[in-house]
Design a protein that fits this description.
45% of the residues lie in helices and 3% in strands. With 536 residues, it is mainly α. The protein has a two-stranded antiparallel ribbon with strand order 1-2.
Length: 536
């Protein structure tokens, strides 16, 4: 069967703007189709031999005969899927059930060596090294099946791809193939088996040893209820394995609404935007232009953009309590450096009386992200308005202000500066408030991401508290699965300022953040944004 590799995307690939990349993607599709067919045939042959061996050991066992017949039917259903190596109940979860015939675990996954997962680019590099120039001198080994047909197809494909970029054929081929692998929904592949003894290792892939192309971490193990039947436990376990693999796969589609703040470390490596990402309906004029501009210029390799998405994700989880209270003390700001005082971060967010739209987390995530990116990039339509001494404008304010998406929150979290309380509720851009420099934004992102990577258990809470304060982090702890340290904070935020213990580890993190000293004139002459564009 010829697989479509087309579950993701239009056959004309209109989403690929470069004509050369579009041609390259079509070539990759043909080669990857052959690769998928080899994988399916490898699984077919492997399961057939396994079933034959089991039946030879117990030829009269009617229960076994029935189970093998069901397995064979399931194999046909899986193999007929257009993208059998994608996530999904009929693909990944079905493959898990096929490969875990004995059903011995409460959370099943694809069998294979631990710690050997790779990225799509690493797979593309391996394929190129085996089928690129000089392939005649190399053995055909994993990830290719020596008995399959994909290797000669890739040899021709790589020759064609080299013609599209004569100056750097290897780099271009690996780049375009690395992008095509997740585009055509190849999430996991067979690999070599774990060595069983001192003999020469097997260099070809086998049907019952797999690796992920997403560097998945170990999923949480939850034992199904003892009231379930064995078959029900088997189905639930395979589904959990599929969910865990998809959740941790950097290239997999993901739902922001199903992701909690305890999973924040995953957002540091995601290569795709959430499924909720879309331009809000009924937008027009410069508002629509801004959304379209951000949508076309958004780059997850730019850490300022990635941080914007993460902050948008965090603030959307605060809904509907994601508004700064109006009755704040004047002492909130340091009048010299125009920063919010460190101890003031623990003022509790409130819910506005008219909170229509404040529960729509997907919309809020997009709105916050677009606002931050648009304010951070001097070429955006919003910043073009500011250059003409215009503000956000009534159209923008009506659409976003009613949902609590206002620049004042960016002052609170530390991405913007403000001259006083007026900056939290409005004010003129460039006069009462403005975005901090990219250097400051990246320093804040560095402190934030360091907390996530330094401590898998408590890091997400620490990082949220860095931006929102401990009171608001505690407010989110239960619903967002945040693990809270045994520290001296109340169980719920209050409207008064919470005193932070001096021995709290956050003092070290805050010390790493930029401070306005005499030799730093960022805040004295700070424009709305930095003119220097950083691409990381």
């Amino acid at each position: 069967m010829i697989h479509a590799t087309g579950a993701a995307g239009d056959e004309t690939f209109k989403d690929i703007l470069s004509p050369i990349d579009r041609k390259g993607t079509i070539i990759c599709k043909i080669a990857l189709n052959a690769f998928i067919n080899d994988v399916v045939n490898l699984v077919r042959v492997g399961i057939a031999e396994d079933s034959k061996s089991r039946l030879a050991d117990d030829p009269e066992n009617q229960a076994l005969i029935h189970k093998l017949a069901v397995r064979d039917k399931d194999l046909g259903a899986w193999a007929s899927q257009p993208s059998p190596l994608d996530f999904g109940v009929s693909t990944h979860a079905a493959l898990i059930r096929l490969l875990n015939f004995d059903r011995t675990s409460s959370l099943l996954s694809l069998p294979g060596p631990k710690g050997k997962d790779m990225t799509a680019t690493e797979l593309a590099t391996q394929l190129y090294n085996l089928a690129g120039p000089g392939h005649e001198r190399r053995r055909i080994i994993a990830p290719f099946d020596p008995k399959g047909t994909a290797h000669p197809v890739f040899v021709i494909a790589f020759e064609r791809l080299a013609l599209l970029s004569p100056s750097s054929p290897k780099d271009y081929t690996i780049r375009i193939l690395g992008k095509a692998i997740p585009k055509f929904c190849i999430r996991h592949i067979p690999t070599t088996p774990i060595p069983a003894g001192r003999g020469a290792p097997i260099r070809r892939p086998v049907w019952d040893s797999w690796i992920s192309l997403g560097r998945a971490s170990d999923p949480k193990r939850v034992v199904p209820s003892h009231t379930l039947t064995l078959d029900e436990r088997f189905i639930i376990a395979s589904q959990r394995g599929q969910d865990a693999a998809e959740r941790n796969h950097v290239d997999a589609p993901w739902d922001a609404k199903d992701t909690v703040l305890q999973d924040l470390p995953l957002l540091l490596t995601r290569s795709t935007l959430p499924k909720e990402w879309h331009i809000p309906s009924r937008s027009s004029g410069y508002v629509l232009e801004t959304y379209e501009w951000v949508n076309s210029h958004f780059d997850l390799n730019n850490n300022v953009h990635r941080f914007a998405l993460i902050i948008g994700f965090i603030l959307s989880k605060c809904a509907p309590r994601h508004t700064i209270p109006p009755d704040l003390p004047a002492s909130l700001f340091d009048p010299l450096c125009r920063r919010i005082r460190p101890g003031s971060k623990d003022i509790a967010f409130i819910q506005k009386a008219n909170s229509k739209g404040h529960h729509e987390q997907g919309i809020l995530l997009v709105m916050w992200t677009v606002l931050i990116v648009a304010l951070s990039e001097k070429d955006s339509p919003i910043c073009a308005r500011f250059a003409k001494n215009q503000g956000l404008g009534p159209e923008w304010t009506k659409k976003h202000g009613s949902k609590g998406v206002v620049p004042g929150m960016l002052v609170f979290v530390g991405l913007a500066w403000g001259t006083g309380l007026q900056s939290l509720s409005g004010g003129l851009p460039g006069t009462h408030w403005g975005m901090r420099s990219r250097k400051d934004a990246l320093a804040l992102y560095s402190a934030f991401s360091s907390m996530l990577t330094a401590d898998a258990r408590y890091g997400p809470y620490d990082a949220v508290a860095l931006l929102l304060g401990h009171g608001n982090a505690l407010m989110l702890a239960t619903s967002q699965g945040l693990n809270v340290r045994n520290i001296a904070f109340s169980s719920a935020p209050s409207s008064s300022t919470t005193k932070i213990p001096k021995n709290n580890r956050h003092s070290k993190a805050r010390a790493a953040l930029p401070v306005d000293d005499d030799d730093d004139d960022d805040d004295a002459d700070e424009s709305l944004h930095s003119s220097k564009r950083i691409r990381l």
